[in-house]
Amino acid sequence: MFVRKKNNKSGVVSIQVLEKRDGRSILIKTIGSSADAGKIEELLKQGRAYIASFAGQQLLQFDNEKQLVDAYFNSLHSLRLVGPELILGKIFDEIGFNQISDQLFRHLVITRLVYPVSKLKTTDYLYKYNQEQIDVERIYRYLDKLYNKQKQLLQQISYEHTQKVLGGQVNIVFYDVTTLHFESEHPDELRKTGFSKEGRHQDPQIVLGLLVSSGGYPLAYEIFEGNKFEGYTMLPVIEAFKIRFGLADLVVVADAGLLSSDNIRQLQQNGYQYILGARVKNESRLLQQQIQEQKPANGQSICLQKDSDTRLIVSYAASRAARDADNRKRGLEKLQKQIVSGKLTKAHVNNRGYNKYLQMDGQIDICINWEKYQQDAAWDGLKGYLTNTTLTKEAVIDNYNQLWQIEKAFRISKSDLRIGPIYHRIQRRIEAHICIAFCAYKVYKELDRQLKSLNAAWTPEQVIDICKTIYAVSFKTTLSSNLHTRLHIDNPEKEKLIKMFKIQIG
User: Is the pTM of this model over 0.90?
Assistant: First the structure.
């Protein structure tokens, strides 16, 4: 019900109470008429009082329950999913990503966290759950703008926020690469077949290099041709990052897979300090002998001088030794089965993986080189680290062990954010797609940090799942044409999350 002022030809204003039924306004009662402004205002108050009184009577009349239910439903205006915007949008703003005024960027980043799908399916999601009607071509046009004008600013925003979180200058960075495949059979200058970390060697791919800080906060990224050797990607990414943010001293931490004498030489020539994984069995005979003679106890480490600039630190862990021995045993058993089945040929006798244990017995037969197998047992549990820093050996090992943060970043990006497969074919849109995933991961990491600071038992994934169940109900009462919105909080879990992030209700 609502109150209406009806202007009559005589100049008198009638105050009426009406009700919407099947799209038509039905007159319920005429409160009175007058040409005096003061009297008209009084009649309006009487009309509103009548509606309030009538509604109260309806609540007490059991016979009118159906009418009451119908009235409630007729008052509903919309039901929207708002949890992602309330929680993730708040973190998005706190990072500073709201410096990008395009609302579409906000939608794409938050949706990547909540419903990571293709751009076409993203438009469906935004329409169904946010009542946002966005054409997919508009998204493609925005990706071009993002690549041309906003990519550098977004990395700047992310970097400045990371500085604030870490409480100062970023001086230790962690680098690694992964591969992202495409749902396409046609390679081009960027998308090429190569060694795939996803095991999809037949598909075109790109190489993604990612730089993160202590704690795993994303700092910078770059993409390379799909057949690019990963060792050649590290220095360009680090150098661009160093120049962009005017950094003087950086300690670079990277895995043994990126290690080469050329890499180390370039790092030294460019003034970088580094902590790199080392393959201790590939070191000089002198260093190998020293390692075996000084082999550390469980949980301990030794430090050896590799050359005038570089130290080799070697640690030992009994748990790692057991894992190494088990892996070697399983690799050997697999080779033995293949020998019995006759599946191995002369071509399999090489140094790839556990094939190094194979040898030719005469001109025809293939057998196990048991001496080499036993010799490898001496290296079980040993892990090497190369560094030119002045850090203690404990600090070197501790920093290297943080590489799992970047591995986690790749895992989350590929599983939760579903950064791949990539459906774009134009390079600028491929880069814009990765930029959105980069920003989404930044929001994810900040959510993770805030949950830990609040001593919350939830993981970021659990919070995102709860967000996907928080809706806002918009409705109008019969007393006015005002639109009211309230959160629908129907369980303690939602209520706890809303209070934890200090979200205002109503």
Answer: no
